[in-house]
Amino acid sequence: MTTRSSTTTPASGGLVPESHSEDGDATVPDVTTNALPWKPPPAVDVEPLPVGKWWDAVRAPAAIGERALKTLGDETGAVIQDKRGTLYWLITVGSATSWPLRGVRVLTELADERTYLGVPPVSWTTGPEAHWRVPLGPDRYLTDAQRLRGALTEADRAEYGLMPEGRQLCYRCQLPTDEPIPVDVEARTNGVGKIIYACPTHAPLYPTGQHLRTLTSAPATEHEGRR
Predict the structure, then answer these.
(1) 155-165 confidence digits (pLDDT tens)
(2) Cα torsion angle, 139, 141, 147, 153, sign
(3) What are the pLDDT digits (tens) for 131-145?
(4) Roughly how many angstroms between the first and final C-alpha of the chain, as a whole number?
(5) CB count, 10 Å around CB of 2?
(6) pTM for the predicted model, two decimal places
């Protein structure tokens, strides 16, 4: 759903080469968006639009995003969902930079390169391709950045447990990660299991065939330093 600089390679959200107008606010034949300060340009497919111009965006993996969406309830603004289930909220430009949450990214304009978000036509409100999970409307546009951060922080804690102290090695790439996601517990004879971690990229690839486990049991918490 996101791409940088001038790349035109299709991404998970079905990006297409940039072809929108410079002002980006051509009329959309949908009266529900007429009152908005910004609306997607008319298009027949997902279109890459630059973040940092009308809005910034926050990207969250499916498991975290779904929990946050439920927590926000009526306080959420419009939300884009790509074909992998990743969710994207639109927020006020400059209202966030980076958040220490696993797999969550704040997409904003950078000094040396431009980032694009794949935006579906306003009429696309169902999947399986990229669509507006929460449609645009006069009362559904930007999400308050602090409320969103709170909901995502709560979702991160509920889904992955407390953040371990220090960096952890990813089971697959064997590189230290600042965003360790617990994927399994290795049994030991003393009854205290060793938690196996993964980086956000490799967590979905852990060969269990199951959803990621929330490892918050008392023995594990006592064994692993937590903050």
Answers:
(1) 999 998 888 88
(2) positive
(3) 999 999 888 999 999
(4) 32
(5) 20
(6) 0.71
